[in-house]
Amino acid sequence: MNQYILEIENTLSLSPKRISSQHPESYIGGGQSKLRFIGLRVPQLQQAMRNGFSFSNEEPDQQAKIWDYIWWNSDCYEVMSLALSWYYDSKQRKNLSQYWSKLKKWSEKIDNWAHSDSLSGIFARILEENPEKVYPTLVEWNSSTNPWLRRLSIVSLLYYSSQRKKFLPLKKILTLVQSQLYYDHYYVQKGVGWTLREAYNVYPKSTLLFLKKNIRNISAQAFSAATEKLSSEQKMQLKELRKRKTVGKRNLFKIKNKK
């Protein structure tokens, strides 16, 4: 199936490259991704998918096998992105659960936030259909030594809540978020914030209470994302509470040191 990878790369190479002072591997991979980047924009990738490839008319199960091979054997960010985008097609949305056993293994190759978010979007849909199948895996990933699995474990809970029709009980969501509050990884902390932001859209009162209760332990990155949808007044109240709690913590530290 290597011919399919070559076909896709050849097709993408014909598109005009991104002209930017910021290289995609820097802001997408945080400078740590091991993938190659062609340097294309999302609309260009979407157009490539619309145009199709030599295997685009195959039966869905056969296409799924091809995309699975492409995911595991390509080292190109854009090619792998197309594998993820195939599952976003409306034709696949009703049958995503049947691909869960394969797709959950794709998580092992995640090393950047863009692929992580795309996979989280797919997992969120499968979670909505079959929570009993997906949630235990998210619980397992929640304590992984791999930070990208930790990020997947929380962002996949809701992804964008506006796209969901059914939601997990808030307790199941906050349990996984709570355990990440002290995990020192930038993209995990951004995931904490985004998940709290989406939880607020669904469970506003209880999520706001969680923010107040844990305000001292929420990182700056998480706090910024978590409060995006709050009113100016609510943000100000949380900032004041955050300031008081932080000062109190510092004073307590000084007292203990004096002893």
Q: Can you walk me through this structure?
A:
The protein has helices spanning 2-13, 24-27, 42-51, 60-73, 77-86, 90-93, 100-106, 113-129, 131-141, 147-155, 170-178, 186-202, 204-213, 220-226, 232-258. With 259 residues, it is mainly alpha-helical. Helix 5 (77-86) packs parallel to helix 8 (113-129). The longest helix is centred in the last third of the chain and has 27 residues, at 232-258.
What layout of secondary structure does this protein have?
Blueprint: H1 2-13, H2 24-27, H3 42-51, H4 60-73, H5 77-86, H6 90-93, H7 100-106, H8 113-129, H9 131-141, H10 147-155, H11 170-178, H12 186-202, H13 204-213, H14 220-226, H15 232-258
Outline:
The protein has 259 residues and is mainly alpha-helical. It has 15 helices and no strands. Helix 10 packs parallel to helix 12 and helix 11 runs antiparallel to helix 12.
Radius of gyration: 21 Å
Helix content: 55-70%
Residue stretches low in confidence (pLDDT < 50, at least 5 long) are 247-259
Terminal CA distance reads 69 Å
Biggest sheet character:
none
CATH architecture of the largest domain: Alpha Horseshoe
The ordered H/E elements are: HHHHHHHHHHHHHHH
Shape annotation? globular
